[in-house]
Design brief:
Structural class: alpha+beta
CATH architecture of the largest domain: Beta Barrel
Protein name: Lipocalin-like domain-containing protein
Strand order of the largest sheet: 1-2-3-4-5-6-7-8
Radius of gyration: 21 Å
Organism: Odoribacter laneus YIT 12061
Oligomer: single chain
CATH topology of the largest domain: Lipocalin
Distance between the termini: 60 Å
Number of strands: 8
Number of domains: 2
Number of helices: 3
CATH class of the largest domain: Mainly Beta
Shape: globular
Largest sheet: 8 strands, antiparallel, barrel
Helix content: 25-40%
Order of helices and strands: HEHEEEEEEHE
Amino acid sequence: MSIYNNFRFISYLISLLLFIACGNDDNDSKNEQLQGSWVIQNKTITVWPRPGEDEAALRDSLTDYTFFKEGSVVTFQDDSVRLTIDYMEWQRPAVLPYSYHKNYLKITPPDQLPLLLEGSVEFQNPVLQFTLTTESYMSILQLLHPSFYDRILSANVSYFMQRQN
């Protein structure tokens, strides 16, 4: 191999390593953005009803079945999230493990709850938007109010959180 080819090969390897390192830095900075306390300011529900069902009425009904209430504080620490699971008059504080990678957040629910808590995260400074996947929200509905299953094709919810000072 000539010196020129060796130089090209080494340059290629260095470029590749720098590219990988920068990609990890981007994810680390997003993870740092996530750290801290956030107050749920608002939530938006999107519903796809079965034929013959009233979309607006279903959306209004679903506001009680979103798992987190407006005004709740969600605190992300190194590898756990502190939050309050809220359903009607029932509240349960919890500290749960989570993972966050490439704008995708997955919160591991308590063992006794058969549901998914995962979705996309978007930062719109100073607001964090967490949108549950359709599968996640449908698992919450199946747990909290199974009769909605017969009335909707699918639904999801987005939470809008403001950083707490």
